[in-house]
Amino acid sequence: MTSHKPLIGREKQVDEFEEIFASALRGEGGAVLVSGEEGCGKSRLIRDGLEESGFRVLVGRSYSQSNVPFQPFIEIAEKSGVPFSFGEGSARQSGSDPKVMTVERLEDCDLRAYESALLESLREVAGEGPTCLLLEDLQWSDHATCDWIPCVVEAFADQTFLLIGVYRSEEIQGKHSVRRLRNELKRRGLYREIELTAFGPKETDALIERLLGVAPSRSLIRIIQQRTRGIPLFIEEFCDLLESKKLLIETPQGLSLGEGAELPMPEGVRDAIMMKLGTLSDRSRAMIEAAAVYGDSLDFENLLAVEDSVEALDELLQSGLLIESESGKGKFRHALLREAILEEIPWTHKRILHQRFSKTLVNQNSPSDVVAHHLLGAGEREAARAVFLESADRAYEIGAFGDSLVLYRQALDLWDAETDSDRRLEAVQRLAQSAQLTGQLEEAKKAWREILESDTASLDLERVAQANKGLATTLALEGRAEQAAPYHREAARLFEEMGDKASATLEWLESCGLATLQARYTQALADADRAKELATETRDDNLLALAIGSRAFVLALKGDREEAYPEIDTAFQHAIRSENPQTLANVYQRLAYVHNYFADYSEATKHFRSAADICHRNDLEGQAEFCMGCMAFAVMKTGDWKEAARICREVLNSEDGDTFPRTVAAGTAGVIAALRGEKRKARKLLEESDTLSHQIGLHVMPFYSRWGLALLAEEEGRDDSAREHYQKIFEIWENSEDRYDVVSSLYTASTYFSQRGLKKDLDRCVHILGEIVSVSGNPEPLAAFAFVQGEKALAEDHPDEAAKHFIQALERIERMNLPLESVFASTRLGQTLLQTGDREKGREHLKRALQSAKKLGARPLASRIQTLLEDRKGATASSSSDGNPKSDLGLTRRQKEVAKLLAVGLTNKEIANQLFISTRTVDMHVGHLLDRLDCRTRTEAAKKLVEVGLA
Description:
Blueprint: H1 11-25, E1 30-36, H2 42-51, E2 56-61, H3 71-79, H4 103-107, H5 111-126, E3 131-136, H6 143-155, E4 161-168, H7 177-187, E5 193-196, H8 201-212, H9 218-228, H10 232-244, E6 248-251, E7 254-257, H11 269-276, H12 282-294, E8 297-299, H13 300-306, H14 310-319, E9 322-326, E10 329-332, H15 335-344, H16 347-363, H17 368-377, H18 381-397, H19 401-413, H20 422-437, H21 441-452, H22 461-477, H23 481-498, H24 501-517, H25 521-538, H26 541-557, H27 561-578, H28 581-596, H29 601-617, H30 621-638, H31 641-652, H32 659-676, H33 679-696, H34 702-715, H35 719-734, H36 743-755, H37 759-775, H38 779-795, H39 799-816, H40 819-836, H41 839-856, H42 859-877, H43 893-903, H44 908-915, H45 919-933, H46 938-947
Parallel strand pairs: 1-4, 1-5, 2-3, 3-4
Antiparallel strand pairs: 6-7, 8-10, 9-10
């Protein structure tokens, strides 16, 4: 097992290191990270590589129980005999030694000066020759070390220099500082990483043969691979044990377990480790058991205070079971070694050791959570609980909610569930808040409900109100708006009962917001009314602005134009007086919504932009994204699809964006992409918006995502799918109080149903818009209502009446300056006029629609309109001079081909396949044929085609 033999299974990594050392010697150094599980051979790989590299190696280490900033760099300076000094304002002048400088002390000094002084010491240590800084155990590093590594690498760019950072990959979870280090090194172009993974059977075979000197059998390879998980260190341990016990024999198949031999260890390598410990003296065995109880990182002074035997400690260090990491400090050679020992210690002895350590550590003012760990191990539950609570409170109060969650959980685990004391309920409340703030929503809900079900808590209105508020917030974060709203209302009622009108106002506004998300506008208005009443009593401009602004928003959603505008003006005045930028941005946003819901999209865009600008100036980036997401839709309605798509991309590319603006941006961008004919992009965005809408309970956005998906299905000739999406829109509307968001989809839905003779579905379009128009002052539903009445008249074969409705719709649309809806209305009016015989005006409207569609970039629409114009040209050209149609009915060549296939009973899809054209084109031709033949059904058209000799 000599270390100078070539490494097995690491040939690729050895080559990588050789290339890295060579480039570093050429002045192209930088940083390289080496990662892998404990026992995978990281140290051996680095040691062998550095032996003949020509670099002077300076080693610094991080420690699991240390919070000293820049620990490995300070250690390098001190080990090299270069004292680290810090000038004026330094830690030394304030009475602190840099070796033991804590995070709190570091915050009191000039960080840049501190780093500069430390860098100067490192330069002195490095000298002139090739230098390698080796930073071990970065998985335990402090944040300052990881943040500073890229700066150190760049600072040594003018020297022959290399920095190697080593960490255990299994310990890098979540937002670990090593993850941030990797990203920063990548950003600066300094990043390289060598990863060591566990061995597969091939590498395990080769290592066993090297260790035992004989090729192993397949059965032996399989056993060792299973037991060691392919970790080289464990393979070595296992082979050493098998050899020392003389359990192996040579067979024709290779080295195997002897006949009848039983493996002397149960599952896993832990037992192999324990069997090796059998050779230790009694004093050393007692010492290593004490070390296992002590913890991952060992303080030899504390260890000797419990097991007073320097000789035993020396034996453990000489055996390699313990490693001295620095003077007076150490660790186990491997974490699983400690775990195996702990499993073997009787619980009574463990308790005695924990008692001894707790007394030792208390006397030394050690960290409270470490003390609590030993108190708990000693069976002193109440004392441990008190220490856990103290640590949890401290973490909570400084905003370390991840730590406070763990500590409160540990404290509460030591409390009897029946104990319903005020202190316990306070801990539960803080645990719930910590869990909520760290995204542990299930745990937060459980804790809030525990408070609400507590008999003691029921006597404390403040605590019950906060629990209702907390549970409502947690449910809302899960997208359960309908379940959350009653808890907000109950919290508001309790705050009112306590006389806390400000808190009650905010809770009514939260309930109002959730009802708005669900399109429950009657409830939302009632909540906003109550919020306004309470805010008026407080005379607080900030609360008045928020309450009245919310009320104006709901009034706009309900279509109450007369009351919405005066309310938003009043809210705006209060917002100005409040001098609160967040409130002012909120009211600007509400003002934009009011204009939005009364079809003044240019004004809406202007106010959304003002709201976003206020947010950007005041670092309210989350609220700014809300404004941008909603603004994108308003910009789309004005016809500037390019700008709308750009805004959507900005919101969607945000790494820290809220789900709400992302949902709106994805839906808006998806509809634009669908109208542009960008099918794959559209489907991805629309499906994302639809999914997110359900997650957060945003009731209105599916009107748009389903509309976009219906447009895609129509374009692809999937009639059943298109109809399903439109019917889903009806279902959503019927379960809401929506009076606006459904409108856009009803233009294309009514045309779709009219062209296919789906009378019941068309009647539902008419019914929905009739309901909206009867209660809303919004001019846009009025225009859409005229449009769907035109479609109904066409479906009932009244083209003259249909033309009147389409003209009325177009006039109203143009007054609102809605380019897309203008294309819809102009197209259908043009088709209808052609059908009535007014070809000149019909073609004029179609040309106008074509020009607008091209300007928007609506390629599928433009293509269909172009087909209409071309078909009608052919019809005109093939008419006789006296105006009577010839026997071919004035059909184009393509229409005749479609007519023949329709007459023999082929479906649109079958016709498309036979003529090598799209299903959508066939749909259009069949529609024209029905118009030309004055037929309602395909069967009737087929009969007439036979009669005129075209089939």
